[in-house]
Amino acid sequence: xxxxxxxxxxxxxGFNQCFAQDKxxxxxxxxxxxxxxxxVGFIRxxxxxxxxxxxxxxxxTSYSYEAKTYHQGIKYSIEFDSLGRIEDIEYKISFAEIxxxxxxxxxxxxxxxxxxxxxxxxxxxLIGTASALIEYMREGVVTPAIVAKYxxxxxxxxxxxxxLMEYLFAENGDLERSSNIIQKIPIILxxxxxxxxxxxxxxxxxxxxxxxxxxxxxxxxxNKSLKNDWRLNLTIEGRNSLxxxxxxxxxxNNQEYIHTDYTLIAAKRVGxxxxxxxxxxxxYKENQLILRYLQQFVLIKKYNSFRMAHRFALDQTExxxxxxxxxxxxxxxxxxxxxxxxxxPKEWYLKINNEYLNSFQNKEQSLEMRVVPLxxxxxxxxxxxxxxxxxxxxxxxxxxxxxxxWVSLKWYLIL
Length: 415
Prior knowledge:
By secondary structure, the chain is mainly beta. The chain has helices at residues 5-18, 37-46, 100-113, 130-139, 192-205, and strands at 21-23, 26-30, 53-58, 63-71, 74-80, 86-93, 116-128, 146-158, 161-170, 175-181, 212-225, 230-245, 256-269, 274-285, 288-302, 307-319, 322-337, 347-361, 364-380, 383-394, 402-414.
């Protein structure tokens, strides 16, 4: 019997894969007023100290509601059906936190199913009566009325073909459901690990044998959430020039301090994915104070595995002995994880900014283009670091544009 057991397991795994269901889900933010009263009432009884955000999740055959919040240091997702009846409570853990015997059972299944596999996300599902789940959230007690299950999302490779799969396991490690996650992502995004390299090659190829400027752009970005969907942002950014010539070995030290910017912006959420913002920037340069007034509208759209943001902005710059400079700006930002389908703590991600700036000053006009590929690391929900190259091409429609490269280092903190 022992001889045939591995063969039997392999046949069962193959059977499960053949009959795995396709899964496509779309999740988006909604207002509390659109949520069924029973779901709102359930959340109200828990009296959470932190803000609760509501989402609607649509699949190919049904929809549900989710309330997400932090409670005692853990991010919970509480899911309700279309009528507002409680379905389950979910929270993330690491794969290593699953009990050893159960985890080994899952690993054996994955080893037989895939040539290679990697866990992207592990969640605990708690299913039970409303009273039992309320008691758990209040006291942290798992009563016999609650059933615990594990949901895992992983990338698996079979015969050089990669799949994104979701599995639901019972508490003892028995497989209950498998789903093939359908991702509607443009083909170019599927080569995410090569995007950064190709952008760097293209930027470098445009500047060889040209007069260029190379410098540093370190910055600190502080964010503070306020009541009624308001938030404040303070950015401190320095600029130092390192090179102002062709790319060749040079003599001496070309380092030069240019200026420091202090930018304060107040933003207000005006919809599920829209922001209105305004602020002011103070620039200290050569014993001179330059003021810039900023107005912005931001539209954010989340997809299954990446996020797009569109920023439309105006600014007006006032400096001594110079007419006011007006600029119209548009920036598109792509942000996607380098593993898995979401950017979680202790994970790397890729961000690409592409911005166009049309400037007007004293009847003169110029158009600038910026491309900023960045690699980021998320230390926690409140801290992340990004670094990359900020490529700028001033007046790039002219016959003699001057490219500049800034080594960007950005540290983001939520207070």
